[in-house]
Amino acid sequence: MTAARRLRVVVADDHALVRSGITGLLEAGDVEVVGEAADGVEAVEVALRLRPDVVVMDVRMPRLDGIEATRRLRREPGGPQVLVLTTFDLDEYVFRALEAGAAGFLLKDAPPGRLVDAVRTVADGDALLAPAVTRRLVERHLRAPAPATGPDPAADLSPREREVWLLVAQGLSNAEIAGTLVVTEATVKAHVTRLLAKLGVRDRVQAVVRAYETGLVRPGRAG
Asked: Is Transcription regulation there in the keyword field (predicted)?
């Protein structure tokens, strides 16, 4: 039997020590780091040349910031998924990165294992938001005019799908949801796929926003 292909990642950060640390964490998690970049221009060039599955992207970098680099990569047919690393005082960039097409956001003080899990999540086509970023994203969204009322989007959800929706709204990845519910990741992924279809949303980010809109969770009370 042929061994499963390792995920291929490019790490973009203007601090050499940070790049080295991220590379070490990913390699320890059986993720192959195929290239590194010290600024946004280099990140785009390296990613287009090496065609990784995921680019782990810093936001503030010389020559071209991570947001514009993300936008350029996501415009490319078959471009890589982008996981943005951010800090609490850079949240304003997260919203712009979302518009640019980033699939995931993680805070730089996240536990080491969560970085590997986040890379795998976005490589698999799912969106991932750190819980603190999720709350800020939703709170900003909820300051916009309320959407028109209509049928309850949760009416057709099973109890387990509703439970999964709540955990998604808390910012948990598929692996973390599987651990919480004591089921396999494949089962969680199936639940999430049905959940998105029933809610009529494109991805997990929209599912999180819908959870706040409907009152399933409230800002400051994601638990």
From this structure: yes
- Asked if residue 85 has pLDDT above 80, the reply is yes
| Continuous H helices in the chain | 16-28, 40-50, 66-75, 91-100, 112-123, 131-142, 159-169, 174-181, 185-199, 204-213
Strand order in the sheet with 54-57: 32-37, 8-12, 54-57, 81-86, 104-107, 128-129
Distance of CA 36 to the CA centre of its chain: 20
* 23 and 101 part of one domain: yes
Query: Is 210 domain-assigned?
Result: yes
Note whether 118 and 190 are same-domain residues.
Answer: no
* The two three-digit tokens of residue 99, written as one number: 């518009």
> Which of 58, 131, 93, 102 shows the shortest CA–CA distance to 203?
102
Which domain range does residue 192 map to?
148-214
Whether the full predicted model's pTM is greater than 0.85, yes or no, is no
